[in-house]
Specification:
Blueprint (H helix, E strand, L loop, with lengths): L3 E6 L10 H18 L3 H9 L13 E6 L2 E5 L5 H10 L9 E5 L4 H4 L14 E6 L4 H7 L16 E6 L5 E4 L2 E7 L7 E7 L2 E6 L9 H11 L4 E5 L4 H6 L8 H8 L6 E5 L7 H17 L7 E4 L5 E3 L1
Parallel strand pairs: 3-4, 4-5, 5-6, 10-11, 11-12, 12-13
Antiparallel strand pairs: 1-2, 1-14, 2-3, 7-8, 8-9, 9-10
């Protein structure tokens, strides 16, 4: 059975709305195509599903939904999880039978800020299983809902919430998902996750500074990603910015391509986009990543996509 992956938040550090220049450019391009091709209403609706310029990269901070055999695993609860909760309500999805699993990479605000806005948490029939290798996730989630930071206390969440720890380098089974963690190079600790589901492997490796990894450690990273159908990787910076912001805990698309060399990777989803970058700048980073693949003879079997809010992939 296929595994469905949908991105609900792809920005890093801070939620970011589309800039007015990008919006004007998108509208101009769409009007040009609609008028020149004399599209009727049905054709316009179909065209808009994949219209150039409408796939803004953010948006919301980190949140990814993985679904397999009707069971759901959520990666992080940045601001994107609010829309995911709305989708569950609109689709009448409940978790009174099989629990909803939320896997947290770490406790930085951009990865937890959407948690109190996840509507299924307020349904007493829902079971929500929170899992992390980070030891302070429960404390962070509870503290962010304390006065004076938030008006609704954690205790107001009516769902049946459980917390489960995943020791680093060990594995755990969450329904059809077998999960293993790896400590990454990032301030205040962050963990990557290797998720085996069906016939596929998905690696979630947000918030990591690959250029900061020593030669003794890099082999462990390479083994962690080996054979993945999809890597969701922290490609926050351009190459120059990655150099300028050393020790900040983030990477570039070039570092991830180097990591994936000879690892039999199918797709790299560029993730955790820098909030100050425009969509055009992120598109340019995607193009440069593809050119780097080509120059290294890796383009035939390895593809790159700059993730955006709403992107759906089927594995």
């Amino acid at each position: 059975m296929a595994t469905a992956v949908k991105f609900y938040g792809t920005r890093g550090s801070l939620p970011t709305s589309p800039d007015s220049q990008s919006l004007r450019g998108a509208v101009r391009e769409i009007l040009h195509d609609v008028i020149n091709n004399q599209l009727d209403q049905d054709e316009i609706d179909e065209y808009l599903k994949n219209a150039p310029g409408l796939h803004f990269h953010g948006g919301n901070t980190s949140c990814v939904r993985i679904e397999h055999e009707g069971q759901i695993l959520i990666l992080d609860a940045g601001s994107g999880i609010r829309q995911l909760g709305k989708d569950f309500i609109e689709q009448s999805v409940t978790f009174d039978d099989s629990p909803c699993h939320i896997l947290f990479s770490h406790a930085h605000w951009d990865h937890i800020c959407g948690f109190p806005f996840f509507v299924p948490l307020y349904n007493p029939q829902n079971k929500v299983n929170i899992v992390s290798s980070h030891e302070q996730i429960e404390t962070a989630l509870r503290n962010q809902q304390q006065e004076p930071c938030f008006p609704v206390p954690f205790e107001a969440l009516a769902a049946q919430i459980t917390f489960r720890s995943l020791p680093s380098a060990e594995s755990i089974e969450l329904g059809p998902f077998k999960v293993k963690s790896l400590l990454l190079s990032h301030p205040n600790q962050c963990y990557g996750y290797r998720i085996e589901v069906g016939d596929n492997v998905i690696v979630y490796m947000t918030d990591t500074e690959l250029p900061n990894i020593g030669k003794d450690e890099i082999h462990g990273y390479q083994q962690f990603v080996k054979g993945a159908a999809l890597i969701i990787g922290d490609c926050q910076y351009t190459f120059p910015d990655n150099y300028k912001k050393r020790t900040w805990g983030h990477s570039s698309v070039f570092s991830f391509i180097d990591l994936c060399r000879d690892a039999e990777i199918e797709t790299l989803a560029m993730f955790h986009h820098e909030p100050s970058y425009t969509d055009a700048e992120i598109d340019q980073m995607e193009d440069k990543g593809r050119e780097y693949l080509r120059l290294n003879g890796m383009g035939a079997s390895f593809r790159i996509v700059a993730a955006y809010d709403g992107l759906e992939l089927t594995l």
